[in-house]
Amino acid sequence: MFCVICRSDKNLETNVAETTEQKQYLDRKDRKERLIASNKKALHDYFVIQTLEAGIVLTGTEVKALRAGKVNLRDAYVGFPHKDRDDMLLLNMHISPYDFGNRENHAPLRPRALLVKTREAIRLRQAVQEKGLTIVPLRIYFSGPYVKVELAIVKGKKSYDKRSDMKERDMERSLRFSED
Description:
Elements: H1 10-29, E1 33-38, H2 40-45, E2 46-56, H3 60-67, E3 71-72, E4 77-79, E5 89-91, E6 94-95, E7 112-115, H4 118-131, E8 134-143, E9 146-156, H5 159-179
Antiparallel strand pairs: 1-8, 2-7, 2-9, 3-6, 4-5, 5-7, 8-9
């Protein structure tokens, strides 16, 4: 945006700055989300305690493969590789190699760095170490031009918990069909 500021139009300068800041804020908030993949098995195997959104560091061919929908979150989890640093890595997420990539194509199971605030990473590390919880990805999606991962702090279910959840779902289905 090009703007000429005269001596008499000092208010114009502040108005232009305010509108561009508001526009950037609205762009972040009003981005369209497009789902790439979801981890339905995690909802079956774990109790979800809390969810959060994180950015992810990817290469160009990985983003192109994600646009084609070639990702598997089934066995993925979040780990802290270093005891002295609070960086988080997404492990075992399989992104298939890009079909039209060259010799610089990515490795399918490489660890991928997650982008969260340091305070949040410290809190998550403490939850994992002290309470015995796990962090797993629930879904991966495009938020505007960015790739985001929805992470969940989870606790494992026992087999009898899974059976009781299945019974409840069956009861709800039978009630819905009987009403129709």
